[in-house]
Specification:
about 120 residues; three-stranded antiparallel beta sheet; binds L-tyrosinamide
Length: about 120
């Protein structure tokens, strides 16, 4: 993919309008943001249906996707609910923890910087 984002200097010290002198271009700020995984941890007490509900309503998964992720966490101990920018990841992890606490489930959710 290309962009117009490479800073450079016009040849011969002549700018686009033909004026002479030192001409520097500034890099346009278009760096991609760091991404963060939202991880859910297994426990022995949170009902499977509750985890599926969380995945459907907070992570916008359909029932099949939600069930697959829940079973992965149940069997492996940890799984990825989604990958987001930092603020979105923090917000979603907080929503999971709030819902779990309000329903008295020990479900744990954390975020981790993506590689
Ligand atoms: N292990 C739980 C049970 O057997 C289900 C569960 C799945 C809990 C995923 C947490 O993140 C979790 N009821």
């Amino acid at each position: 993919m290309s962009n117009n984002n490479t800073p450079g200097q016009n040849g011969g010290g002549r700018d686009d309008d033909g004026n002479t002198g030192v001409v520097l271009k500034t890099r346009v700020k278009t760096k991609k943001p760091s991404m963060y995984k939202v991880l859910m941890l297994n426990d022995d007490y949170t009902p499977m249906e509750f985890v599926v509900h969380i995945l459907e309503h907070i992570f916008n998964k359909n029932q099949d996707e939600a069930t697959t992720i829940m079973l992965h966490v149940h069997q492996k101990g940890v799984g990825v609910c989604g990958v987001f920018t930092y603020e979105v990841a923090e917000t979603k992890a907080g929503q999971v923890m709030d819902l779990a606490r309000h329903n008295q489930h020990p479900l744990q959710c954390t975020i981790e910087k993506d590689a």
